[in-house]
Amino acid sequence: MFSPEGPTLRELAVQALSSVERGYDLLAPKFDHTPFRTPDAVLDAVGSALRRMGPFGAGLDLCCGTGAGVGVLAGVCRERVMGVDFSAGMLDIAREQVRSAGPPVSWVRADARALPFAPAFDLVVSFGAFGHFLPRELPALFAQVRSVLRPGGCFAFPLVAPPRPGSLGYWMLLGFDTVMRVRNALWRPPFVMYYRAFRFGDVRRELARAGFRVDLHALPEFGPRRDGSPRVRLAVARLPVRPVRPGRVNS
């Protein structure tokens, strides 16, 4: 929920009628007081899971926002940690408030679809950013992630189970996406943020095509759903230790 320190309705309207980059520049000072920030419970659970898999060398938080995920990386990486985002406003807040007693932390402004790095990272994470990418952009996005990982490197991100059809959560997400599609049909520049467009079946296929092997790890902190399946999983896409050329996979 929004806290009293969060943005006003007018501020949210101005953000929603801006581009994605400008909108986040405007929202940055109050972003951590909105429900858009990844909850600490998710960050802590992901950190615990990654500690069981690590330690890692260098880590990159993709679309880092105000830097919440960088704290996760600082707890599992020994070499260095970097946050990358295309919003200068979000990076300014991250620089002010993120402190690490572990590896050195740096910040880079860049588009996730055109990362300016060599294969220098062992772990890439991302929290809550995939709604900003249309499904047709996923192959290029995952190719960029692959390009910055060393052989054997991992790309990890949490997956919350979708709400059941007909539930309140289902109708809320459907309503949000519908409003955004109408907004983008009538207003320019577009603001791309669709909660229901990130379908894991498609994501898994595109990750495999990019050369990753994908595993899912239940995050037990969130318990099971009624059908026994996990409420939240950690997707871990790993590159082979020996580089291979990405290829097609069967659908």
From TrEMBL:
UniProt domain Methyltransferase: residue ranges: 60-153
CDD domains noted in UniProt: AdoMet_MTases (cd02440)
UniProt entry tagged with the keyword Methyltransferase: yes
Entry keywords, A to Z: Methyltransferase, Transferase
Listed Pfam families: Methyltransf_25
Domain of life of the organism encoding this protein: Bacteria
Keyword Transferase: yes
SUPFAM superfamilies, sorted: S-adenosyl-L-methionine-dependent methyltransferases
InterPro entries membership: Methyltransf_25, SAM-dependent_MTases_sf
GO MF term list: methyltransferase activity
Protein name stated in the entry: Class I SAM-dependent methyltransferase
